[in-house]
Specification:
Elements lengths: L1 E4 L2 E5 L4 E3 L2 E5 L8 E10 L3 E10 L2 E9 L13 E4 L4 E3 L2
C-alpha cells in the first residue's frame, strides 16, 4: 500500500493493518521528512489516545492528516505505533 499526498509517496508498506476501513502503516514505512507532531490528540473508548501529525509536502501543510495510537488499548494492540491517514491523503494499492 502507498499513502500519497500532493503528488508524493509519503508512506509505503506491504504490512499495513486494516481497522475500521483505515490502513495503519508501520512507522518505519513513513518518509520522515514529511511529518511533524502538531500537539493535538483525541480519545477513543476502545483504542486509546491518538496523537496527530501534520503532513507537509512541497510547502503545503495538511494539518492533522495522520494519526497514531502510541499506547493502544488491549482491543487495538494490532495498530499500536502504526500511522493512518485522512484529510485527502490517498491510500492505494501499489
Amino acid at each position: 500500500m502507498k499513502a500519497i499526498w500532493n503528488g508524493e509517496v509519503i508512506a509505503e508498506s506491504h504490512e499495513t493493518v486494516v481497522l475500521e476501513g483505515n490502513h495503519y502503516f508501520p512507522r518505519a514505512s513513513l518518509v520522515g521528512e514529511y511529518f511533524s507532531e502538531n500537539g493535538k490528540s483525541s480519545s477513543c473508548p476502545w483504542k486509546g489516545v491518538a496523537n496527530y501529525y501534520d503532513v507537509t509536502v512541497n510547502g503545503d501543510k495538511n494539518s492533522g492528516a495522520a494519526w497514531c495510537y502510541a499506547a493502544a488499548k488491549e482491543k487495538a494492540k494490532q495498530i499500536e505505533g502504526r500511522v493512518a491517514f485522512w484529510g485527502g491523503i490517498q491510500v492505494v494499492e501499489g
